Description:
Low-confidence stretches: none
Oligomer: single chain
Order of helices and strands: EHEEEE
Amino acid sequence: MKVIEVKWNDAWIDTDDFTKEKAKKLTPVVRTTIGFLVGENSKAIVLCTDHFEKDTKTINTAMVIPVEMILEYWEYEIVEKDNP
């Protein structure tokens, strides 16, 4: 299973008051997220935090990152070692 590191623009919210002038200058938060690659298509990359060894069809904590929000991403191949 591949591990993906994604650098992306995320939306955010703040309950503070802003002048309209300051609010117009606000920008997205840049995040970096790492997870197991579940799938990707023309609309999004889907990651998860966990997968189950006994049930390879089940994952946990799915995260969908729209491709329009992705700045960069890197793929890492995981090589599993045999247990002694």
